[in-house]
Amino acid sequence: MTTAPVPVETASAPISRPRNLTRWLSTTDHKDIGMMYLALGALFFLIGGVEVLIMRLQLARPGNTLLEATTYNEFFTLHGTTMIFLAVMPMLLGFSNYLLPLQIGAKDMAFPRLNAFGFWLTAFGGIVLYLSLLEGPPDAGWFAYAPLSERPFSSSLGTDFWAAALLMMGMGTTLTALNIIITTVRYRAVGMGLWKMPLFSWMVFVNSFIIAFALPSLSAALIMLEVDRALGGRFFQGGGSPVLWQHYFWLFGHPEVYIMVLPAWGIISEVIPVFSRKPIFGYEFVAGSTVAIAVLSFAVYAHHMFAVGFARPVNLAFAASTMLIAIPTGIKVTNWVATLWKGSIRMTVPMMYAIAFIVQFTFGGITGVSFAVLPIDWQLTDSYYVVAHFHYVLMGGTLFALLSGLHFYFPKMTGRMLSEGFGKPAFWMITLGFNGVFLVQHALGMMGMPRRVYTYPDLPGWGALNMFSTVSAFVLGLGLVLTLINIVISWRMGRIAGDNPWQAWTLEWATTSPPPRGNFVRLPPIKSSRPLWDLAHPEDPDHQRPTRHDQQGKGHIRPEEKGHEQ
Amino acid sequence: MSSKPSSIPMIPSVSQSLDVSALPLPPEHMDASPRSNGFWGMAGFLVTDTVIFLLLLVANIYLRRYSHGPAQGALDPGTTIWFSLGLWASSGALVLADYFKKQAKVSGILYIVTAALGFVFLYGQAQEYIKLNAQGATVDADLFFTGFYTLTGLHGLHVAFGALALLVTGMLRFRGLLDGRREGFTAALGLYWHFVDAVWVVLFLLLYVWGGP
Fold it and tell me: Region entry Disordered: which residue ranges (chain A) (predicted)?
């Protein structure tokens, strides 16, 4: 975008650091806010991680006495709430905020001040949640089933702090999502039709619609819970319906799962083509299946409630929709694999995380579909099998995509490369650690170990598998610490990245690293979803090639992209 | 940290940094609508607000069947309708305020009239709450009233925010301090206020008039 021309020195300096704290407090620049979201997410990820390591220590041996039962309840409630609302969502919103305007060729978001407001609401929400430690933290679990979350069963103010925190974070997230929608609709650079947007922008755009419809459902449920708790209302107790809470919570809660995975898919859809040296396979299908998922994500919510005892047709309808949503998800996985197929693959750290993502996410997806089979769900619900399943999707999926995105976009954000010498060992520790923690939990769940228990009897195999899980958790933790060290060191001493270290073809790589205020001095003409490719190859631009396959059985790959030795 | 060269070799035909500075200046961006960002942002916000009101209404309609208290009979639609008519009339005042926006004084006064009608509505709601509480129709009285207070309370909060914003807008407009640059703000506020009035139509019909399932 052309604004007041940016002085060359500022534009090309590798790191433009804030001079003081007030700049961070007052900034409305989407890149600063994106970085602050990422930092907030990382901070709370650390807190949530320490919480879970303590929980794993408690579970390492049968009959352990490190934590009491109530303390353990508080730990898993805080761990779940922190990881979902304060770690994963802020990090995803951070990438969305940072990258969306860059990818669509805009100067900033449509509402820069609203953007800052949304961030600070989220940050204050996090503070409010942890202020509950002064009063007695919430202990009703992250889904706070009524009537356990009602005054007679949770008499401390912890649950009220929890509800207030979630209302603030929910409002902040909703405002940011509206901002993203308006920005995408109005601020795309001239020439960038919706079907030429980079896939990350596509996913973030669709994701914002899910947020705009799902988060209000949580707000409504929380308002009702607070009317009950603070004013003695009767929505979920005293003649009201506890199942109503479950309906409203999961009407938010299941779309929330997709809110946490759509931007992750977007990151993967950017990383895989770049390191396969091919355009994404089936762009329209990857983008279009996202819309199908957005709609279906609301239609499957009651599969969290099969144990409630609905009428058979209701159960069957939600089982069917749950199986249905696996189709657009499968389309995506197929397209990523097809992009890898016959590609010229480069095993960089972001690519390694992306490939681990595909394997682990698909595994988590398959265990997820297994819950659509009612008898399996009734057998395994509330067991460690469920814990293993959703960690495979949310951690093996989303967190790995976030790490992939971190390694991929760190050069753009800071102007310096992350070290591969740290990155590769950290990758193996995280991947082996992660699978060590959760793979065995499938077995534990099938052996009957219930989730959310602070200890367990010494049944054959339980102690050994849990000990294995705990040791793996510490390997995983060390891998993450190594990644943090890598970030700190590389930020100061990493190799200078240049504008486009990965030879990627989307607009964010056309500007300097880090981008100047206002993002772009000049934009290339946009005729396809890879404007930089078109600019570098005027003799062979994307928009003059067949969009599906070329007919020679060689896939999309251009001969000149193959030239590398590996 | 890594001092060794990247594992990605340079591709000969692609320069590390593409020379975009030689390109002509492009126009700004795609502009999809003549309306302001403020208008569309508020429209999106009101969609999310609609979801909240809708879910609270569904909860009330679902639960009121099992209500075992004074329930709807305690309400006095005959009095509430007058305050409601005032609120709905305020939408008309707001339309006029926007119509006369070139005449700062007229428009400013009309904004303040709109805000005043909002405050009158709030006064009526406070009176109604006091009366109902005196009759024993409190939040915890029965399932109907839990939902009634939640819905009307949330709507009242919307009216209070809107009326305050309209009051400030009216005073600024009257003193000629609101120019065309603030079009987005007034458009958003206008849309918000009409939405708040429309929500009250639905709430009045479903809570005061309709007998329930």
Answer: 531-566
